[in-house]
Request: fold
Amino acid sequence: MRDATPRAVELKNYRPPDFLVDSVRLEFDLEPASTRVSARLQLRRNPAGRRDAPLVLDGQGLKLRRVSRDGYVMRPSEYEVTAEALTIPGLPEQVCIETEVQIDPSANSALEGLYTSRGMLCTQCEAEGFRRITYFPDRPDVLARFTTTLRAERAAYPLLLSNGNRVAEGELADGRHYATFEDPFPKPSYLFALVAGQLQALHDTFVTASGRTVQLYIHTEPAYVAQCGHAMAALKKAMAWDERVYGREYDLDVYHVVAVDDFNMGAMENKGLNIFNAKYVMADPARATDDDYEFIESIIAHEYFHNWTGNRITCRDWFQLSLKEGLTVFRDQQFSADMGSAAVKRIAEVRGLRTVQFAEDGGPLAHPVRPAAYVEINNFYTSTVYQKGAEVVRMLHTVLGADGFRRGTDLYFERHDGQAVTVEDFVAALADANGVDLAPFMAWYQQAGTPQLTVAHRHDADAARWYLTVHQRTAPTPGQPEKQPLPIPLALGLLGADGRELPLRLADEPAAVGTQRVLDLRSAEQTFVFEDLPQAPVPSLLRGFCAPVRLQVDLSDTELAHLLAYDTDAFARYDAGQQLYMRVIHRLLAAHAAGEDLTLDAGLRDAVGRCLDDTAADPALVAELLTLPSEAFIAGELDVVDPAAIHTVRRFLRSALAQALREPLRARYRALAPDGAYRFEAGEVGRRRLRNLCLGYLAELDDIGPSLCLEQFEAADNMTDTAAALALLAQLDVPARERALDAFYQRWQGEALVLDRWFSVQAGSRRAQALDDVKALLQHPAYAPRNPNRVRALVGAFVHGNPLRFHAPDGSGYAFVADQVQAIDGFNPMLAARLAQALTRWRRYEPGRQALMREALERLAASPKLSKDLYEVVSKALA
Ligand code: TRP
Ligand code: ZN
Reply:
């Protein structure tokens, strides 16, 4: 164990800063192994701070060379330096403190602060990385004006960038040069960035609504500039969209995006200088899949939208993280919905939320959208803060309507521009602009866990009435034994026997109001009475996934099939199908446990067959309807998880459906063949999705599957079709498998990002030797153990994409992952802590696996050196 148990930071202990920084002048003498940083802070006591408090500047791993106060070098006795701070007592109202430190970016493998990536120098400061660059009050409620000078060798670092406008540049002695940047907008330190390297840019311009021309640059290694067009187009669309939908214009004259190879997350919204994981910048048809194209578009938009939701208005403290992330995810979701097929986007979002966030909410790391305490803030960049946070904003949008929501955000921007605020401030702006009380919604930010809605309904034929009773309950989560009922907007419609939507009249209303309603749930149990319904309707509930809840309704298989066939709400239609699949899966699991033969449910076969025949529907939607719940999703629905049983049953269902629907699947697969070259357009994306979905079923047929996959693999002119075929072949024990893997490797061996896919499909294979393959691939020359993309492509893909082998009953998967986590923790704690999360839900598994997972966690807990990040995850998992 660690020698000192790390302490938690608590929201209730928030105190305003004692000192404010009006301006900061940074100077960097950049060298990969030894960079000098001098920082001149113009400080002022905060009227809201404590009188006479000492100045405490955060700093970590810095070699302090000099401290001066108002121009005079201070004696070491006048300040105190610890591993985490520089403390200076006895300062007046206003003071200028200058420090000079030395750091070693080339030794920075944690990728927080200033580090090197393939010869370039770059930064990542969110959340607390700036303190690894210089001494500073590294907290988001200290906003300062930054002026930054970079000096570096010109040959190795021809491009120098920092936030804001370049105001000076020139030559220095010894082949060095410099550039100075001024960012006119006060910002917290986490939004600081610098880049130095040999990069080339794709350039374009954007003219804002008020007529200003903004220079746009996307910088990558020279060989990849040709792949930046899609990202640039996405950026321009996002800029126009934010003007149109939120009235938000960009505020600087220049906007840079820089692609970096080594990056812990997706991308970072540094003011005017976004830094991106290269994976989310570069794309061309031969190298990127449709999913990659979509990710790039939404992440470019996400970081751009942060300019207003995050940068112009930032967070008071890190507990408010969802203030910027939940809202910005909601905005990027709205944007993506406008760019493509909205219904299909929504389904994909919900699928992600249900598999990842619901699992988080039901495990030992469950936390509210606004956590109350953390040991390491890096552990809270979670699906709960991001995705559930976005769902809470979506509910507010539903409650206020699009116009009301816009009035609310207008007031939010007007009131709080330039400030560091809280979730309460955001909700208050929405409420005040609309004259409504949204205080009950704060509970969504404070209460962890997924509410369970249980719905009962009853028809009274004589009175032509239909009763709907909704009961809500949230199970306890760590630290929150008692839960309150939450305000839940519940969107519903009712379908008649002919599949048509019925008019909705509640008991106290004079006439029907439309065919879709949003009911206002507030208490633990509520009953709604609908009139004029001589026949029992089939309820279509939780339309559009209007709230992040689990829903249980007592509908028959026939009623679910009716919704699957007729529901006009695409999400509800999809969801009816998923419930139908889950019912069948539950029955199959029971049969499997009883040692009975597995048989295909005829009703399900017919329902799936009808979907496959629905040529009027958007192919992308049909692909969603035909997608079985994943093994991870199924696991989340069970009380006691046996991953091998889930795998067996799901695979049986896939191959039984493939056999039963062999001819229609083949016909649809053929009919959806491409005509013409790859285009990234919604219609084409949908066509490819459905076609590859058909291929997935057909791959289960031993006689034709392998050859169809190989044929597609060899004929494809784009990565979407290549990757789909390769992933299927990687599952099979056939000669075509090696042939395809070899061909793929030969073609892409020089391109790390493309090769990640080659690692991933092997790590995700159901074959018995998958873990041995993964271990062998760790030694492959193309594997880079310190690059997070590589680690996620191999180890991450095994952990998250291969439940069958990760959960091998002998514990070999757990032992392997624990070893990896331990090794990675030594150089990149953020990455290690994320991987370790796969072990934390051990209580949900059958006893044998439970014991083995726990053993792996205990081994980690006992390691002599454990980062704060990993300590928090492991100790909570074992608590
Ligand atoms: N703010 C970034 C985003 O969501 C997230 C992020 C990027 C991040 N890099 C990080 C968070 C490193 C923590 C650490 O857009
Ligand atoms: Zn973000």
Summary: DSSP finds 26 helices and 31 strands in the chain. Residues 124, 126-127, 264-265, 267-269, 302-303, 325, 378, 381 surround tryptophan (ligand 1) (CB under 6 Å). The domain at 1-198 is CATH 2.60.40.1730 (Immunoglobulin-like). The longest helix spans residues 383-416.
